[in-house]
Write a structure and sequence with these properties.
single chain, 226 residues, mainly alpha, 10 helices, globular
């Protein structure tokens, strides 16, 4: 473990994460220089730039790219339906075979893979038709034949109880956040850095979701996960 990584950990731990009640137009304008008058395109443009800036800030702290790339590369692919195809499926599955450099990454990877498959199973079961092109083949779902039993017996039961397509993102995001917060103040530097980097990315996603909800006239508090 290098002294530089220890310094990076200390610097990252000084970044304050917003609490739920701090997500207000006034607070976000002050912290992120955003506007409630932006169009959806402007909000997305801001998010892409903020994500790139955060990635560069982490690199400027001499944090190895391989430590943070799963947050910025794999997770974004999972949420980009424009590239949902068999090649992406295989790339994701290959990544989640490991090996993993630290426990926080392993927990994150297993969660993402579980939720990735859960969502596909829910969609397949709900639409009741052949698996759409790009989705995992049905034999990948052998252990998901009874969704309620799976959740009842899973480590995610408390968070995922009542899971359906309408609340899928909210519940799985809560599970991610709760799991990774456990590593933030840990003694393992790599785990702590990874967790803080992830939680700050989630904060940027929260800001994007908040602004879009305001734009559409929805209750923005329903779209943030802390």
């Amino acid at each position: 473990m290098s002294n530089q990584l220890l310094m990076s950990q200390v610097i990252l731990q000084q970044h304050s994460l917003l609490t739920a009640d701090q997500y207000t137009v006034e607070q976000l304008k002050k912290r992120y220089k955003v506007s409630e008058d932006w169009s959806i395109e402007q909000i997305d443009q801001w998010f892409r730039q903020a994500l790139a800036d955060w990635y560069q800030e982490l690199l400027d702290l001499d944090i190895p790219s391989k430590l943070i790339d799963p947050i910025f590369l794999i997770h974004e692919k999972l949420h980009d339906t424009t590239v949902l195809n068999e090649a992406v499926d295989q790339e994701i599955l290959q990544f989640f075979k490991g090996p993993f450099d630290h426990q926080a990454l392993q927990v994150y990877a297993y969660q993402v893979l579980d939720f990735y498959r859960l969502e596909k199973y829910l969609r397949f079961k709900t639409i009741d038709q052949d698996v759409p092109e790009g989705y995992l083949k049905i034999d990948e779902f052998k252990h998901y034949q009874d969704i309620d039993r799976l959740i009842l017996n899973s480590r995610y039961y408390k968070v995922l109880k009542g899971l359906n397509l309408d609340n899928f993102y909210q519940k799985t995001q809560q599970a991610h956040n709760e799991a990774l917060k456990d590593f933030t103040w840990g003694l393992q530097v790599e785990e702590s850095i990874f967790s803080m980097a992830y939680l700050m990315v989630q904060q940027l996603r929260n800001v994007r979701a908040f602004l879009k909800a305001v734009r559409y006239g929805f209750d923005p508090k329903e779209f943030i996960y802390v």
